[in-house]
Specification:
474 residues, Rossmann fold, alpha/beta, 24% strand, Ribosomal Protein S5, domain 2, single chain, disordered C terminus, four-stranded mixed β-sheet, nine-stranded mixed β-sheet, elongated, 3 domains
Amino acid sequence: MKKKLIYRCSNCGHEHPKWNGACTNCREWNTLIEEEPETVSAQKTITTKKNVSVKRLTDTVSQNSDRIITKYNEFNRVMGGGIVKDSLTIITAVPGAGKSTLLMQISDDVAKQGLNVLYASGEESDSQIRRRAERILPSIDDKLWVVSDNSLNNVLGSIEQIDPDLIIIDSIQTFVLEEYPSRPGSPTQTMECATALLKVAKNGKKPRAVIMVGQMTKDNELAGLRALEHLVDTVLVLEGEEGEELKQLFSSKNRFGGTGELGFFIMEETGLIPVDNPSEFFMTQREDNDIVSGSALTVVKEGTRAIILEIESLVSQTFMPYPSRIAECIKKDHVNTLISILEQRAGMLLHDKNVVVKTTGGIRLKEQASNLAAIMSIVSSFKNMGIANDTVFIADIGLTGELKKVPTLEMRIREVERMGFKRVYVAHNALKTTTSFSTIKVIPCKTLSQVIHSVFGSATAKKEKQTAPWDNEE
C-alpha cells in the first residue's frame, strides 16, 4: 500500500495535500518539502502524573546572576551582562558575516576560563574547524572539544560524555534526530532539534548554556518557523555584509536583559575585534583648525548607551533634469523630507543640486535626534563652510522648521561633555531649568533658521569657509 504523504512549507509550516510550485499560504516558491504525516491514535486518553516537581516561586533559585563573563565586552553587553548558564540562544546572519568566527572566539575564551566547551558542526569537518581556529586564535585550549556530525543523537551522546558547560551548534538547520524521517532544515527537524537542546540547557541538575547558529533567508530573516524564535531565550543578529569591515551584533530578544542592545566589531584577519569606544570610531579625528565642509556631529542612542556620530554630506551641481538623492545609511524618502524642510523653511534651493548623505563607519540612522545634524551637514556642504569641530547637534526638526526635543537628552549631552566638546545645539525648552553642565555650552534654539544663523552667520564662521584647490591657481 502506498504511503500517504504531505507537503509542508519550509517557510511558514503550512501543510498541503499535494505538491505545488508555490505555497498557498505565504506565496513562496519551491518551499514545499515531502514528509510522512504523524500517525495519531483516534482515541487517546490524557494521562496525568502526580509526582511532578512543583515549587513555590519564592523557593526557586534564580540562575540569572550566574553568568559566564567573556573578555569581549561588546558581546557581554548584547547578552545582558554575559552568558546565562541555563539559556538557549540563537544567532543568525548572512553568509560570511562572521558568526562562526565570533562563536569560535567565544568558545576559546570560555575554555580558557576552565570550562568545558563543545563545538558541534553539521556543516564543516574537524579539519576545517581546526584551520579556522589556528587562523584566529593564538592558541587552542584543551577544554575546547569539537564534533563534526549532523546527527543530533550523536551530539547528545557527546554531551553526556564530556559534560560541557557551553555548547555551540553550527547550524541548527543542518542537524537531524533519527526519530523523525524528514530531511535536515525542515520545520519538524529544526523544531525537534531545538526542543531537545532546550531540555539540555534547562536541566535542573546540570544547567548548560547552548548557542545555536540559525541560517538566514534571502529576505534577511531567521530561517524556519516563528516558533523557533519564541522557543529560545535570546535572538542575536550579526549585521554586516561579506567584505564590510564593521559588524553590528544586535539583540532582538533577550529574556535576561539587553534587548535592543548593539555591539560593534571590526572584522580583521585575526577575527572580530570589539569596538570598545564607538564614539571615537564613528567620527573622523581632526585637529581643531582642520575644519571641512559637509560634516556635522550628533548623538544617537543604541541600547542603553549614547554614541557620537558624524554625518557627511556632499552637495554638487547637477547637469541632469532630475537631481540625484543618494543616502547610504538613511532612507531616501527621509532625506527628501529633510531637503524639503531646508528649502521651504530656510530658503536654500536645492532643486538643481545633487545631494549625497552618509555616516562615518556606515552605521544606519534610526533616530529622529539626528535630523538637525543631517540638515546642518547639507547646509555646510551647500555653503562650502565648515562647522567647528567642537560643535554637536541634538534635535529633531518638524515640517514647520521648528526644533523638537528628543528623549534622554541629558544622557546624550553628558557623553558629548565626556568626549571634550564645547557646544551643543538643542531644541528650546528641551532641558529642565535645573540641569547644568560644567564644561559644555548648551545653545537652545527654536527654529532651523536660528541654528543656521548662529553657526554660519558670524564673522568667525565666514573665516572657516573652505577654498577649493583650483581657486588658488593662476
